[in-house]
Design brief:
By secondary structure, the protein is of the alpha+beta class. 21% of the residues lie in helices and 29% in strands. A hairpin with a 2-residue loop joins strand 3 and strand 4. Helix 1 crosses helix 2. The chain starts with a helix and ends in a 6-residue tail after the last strand.
Length: 105
């Protein structure tokens, strides 16, 4: 899977990460999680989204819309910035969201 290869390669420089998908109802994205694992990446468990520093999320082309998503997996990372973007074709993109550290962290 293309997404798993991208996440596995990029996450070598970004530990403490998780994956999600906003393309369908499977937000915890077990297919992306599995593909990442078989390509050598190790996403955190589905219970640990609030503890992660990076979130790889499959989403449509409107990246600004990510800041308004109400899905727990994304909201639990706020505040964040979009660190990287990969065009997967067919108006589907993979984004790496990077948590913005606050002074209390």
């Amino acid at each position: 899977n293309q997404i798993g290869k991208i996440v596995s390669e990029d996450s070598k420089n970004h530990s403490n990460f998780n994956v999600a998908s906003l393309l369908d109802g499977n937000t915890r994205s077990y297919p992306i999680r599995y593909s990442t694992l078989i390509n050598g990446g190790v996403p955190d468990t589905v219970e640990n989204y609030p503890m992660n520093d990076f979130l790889y999320v499959a989403y449509g082309q409107n990246k600004q819309g990510l800041y308004n998503v109400a899905t727990w997996e994304v909201v639990s990372l706020k505040p964040f910035t979009i660190g990287s973007t990969w065009n997967l074709g067919d108006n589907i993109y993979l984004y790496r969201l990077d948590r913005i550290k606050t002074k209390n962290e």
